[in-house]
Amino acid sequence: xxxxxxxxxxxxxxxxxxxxxxxxxxxxxxxxxxxxxxxxxxxxxxxxxxxxxxxxxxxxxxxxxxxxxxxxxxxxxxxxxxxxxxxxxxxxxxxxxxxxxxxxxxx
Length: 107
Hints:
mainly alpha; 5 helices; globular; disordered N terminus
């Protein structure tokens, strides 16, 4: 689905390495390309029923997810050389865990 997202939103082929892009290359994408990439990763995660979505109390929309990922990237430049798909998963998982902790005990 990431290669399909590349074609649909116009992620430059030079940004794709073995089916994924790194955080460094993600930083160079336009906002529209970032949104398409993050949306594709979210679809893959949701379809696989893996974390972060199974325990997240919020219904995260694509543009919110892009904001969460972009904030995570700014706060973790040491991760920029990793696969961006894994970084998206980590960013959303971290966000959801924080939300679960904040919402414990709330009606």
